[in-house]
# Entry
Amino acid sequence: MKAVIIAGGKGIRLGNLTKNIPKPMLKIGNKPILEHQIDLLKRYKISEIIICTGYLSGVIEEFISKKYKDKKIRCSLESQPLGTAGCVKNLEKTLKEEDFLVIYGDIMLDMNIDYLLDYHTLKNSEATLVSHPNDHPQDSDLVEADSKNRILNFLNKPHSDDLIYKNLVNAGAYVLSSPVFDYIQKDKNQDFAKDIFPTMLKNNRKLFAYNTPEYIKDVGTPDRIKSVKKDFTSGKINRLNLSNKRPAIFLDRDGVINKEVDLLSNIEAFKLLPVVINAIRNINKTDYLTVIITNQPVVAKGFCSIEDIENIHKKMETILGRHGAKLDSIVVNDLKNDTFFAKIVLTVDGGQMEIDSRPSDALALAVRTDVAIYAEESVMDRAGILLDKETGKPIFEEKEGEADDKGGKGGKVSEEDQHRMSAFREFLDTLDLEDFDKRKS
# Structure
């Protein structure tokens, strides 16, 4: 298989950082982003790599010629700016015989590429877009997909202030098949996200989202570069590869994430609890995945449709995303057919979950998934998260009983729940540590 790295952009938002070097040559650790990407590709036996260059192309060409003597790693200079798709069109003769990989040169990533390629083949896809929730969806290109991850729509930036959306972002890495070339015009500046993929969708071509919790982050701003450098130093970038197991936190929705409303079915009645954004942001800083599990009997009772529930969850993800917080998955049980309308999306092809009808029993989850979640390290919160405004420490209140003056619920707490809440409190207390200590809960 061949891979193309798109490395021709100017990096305007980075100011002086890219005055003399192109974005892919910015160093993370002791080597450029471009070298990290090439090392990743070679790790997964992709040896033929073409780097599309434009802005300050000489810097990249000199680096490649000195670092890699293998002629299978080479540069392709565009004579004029052609966009992410236009430069690939120039390589049609080289690429069209088989599926190929495209990676944008300004993203730092570590992912299991074998899983991605298998997914592309399994779906018989013509364009598979690596996708994920991120902490800045409001300025990202978004993807809408169905329950089978087939792409239905593209929501490209800039977004209107009143848009609500699922936090599923085009991450800037694709597996493409030869039909894509039918939609790219030669010698014309075109972009995959804005021009090619929407046109393919209108022509009913098969495009799929590959939703992964692995580390993929663009370095488009100075703040993001600082964040990536910190994650690299801590080892987080490598740890999040799907080859490694991940622990998870399972959260109930009503009364934990949002103000509890009896039979909530109206999107206007959905209100986030004030402490939730900060709590989820803190979880996001760790290696723990954040999964919401929620029963929604309002669907079975006929008060609303599953589409209404999905729109409520779009509102939830939109609010969280605007404040730099994200969810890895939302699992919905409508209590209608004993099935889940929203699967765990932390998998290669959608996981399967067996669970008692009460999400509070999620510690007994039996999860079969291609992403191994450490069951013994995963935590289910039934009580809810409240943080003391002065100390910032979690306050736990049982959800049964009368509301107290902090907005929680009072009531008798069983010995079992006391033990669980104590363990969860101990875990949350570690979230403000700069270096997260991976230890069993």
